[in-house]
Amino acid sequence: MILAIGLLALGGCATAPPRNPDNLCSIFHQYPSWYRDARRAQKRWGTPANVLMAFVQRESDFHAKARPARPHFLFIPLPRRSSAYGYAQAQDPVWRAYLKANGHWFKSRKHMGSSLDFIGWYTDLIHRELGISKWDPRHLYIAYHEGIQGYRSGYWRHDRHLLETADYVDRLAREYGAQLRECR
Question: What is the mean pLDDT of the chain?
Answer without folding.
Answer: 91
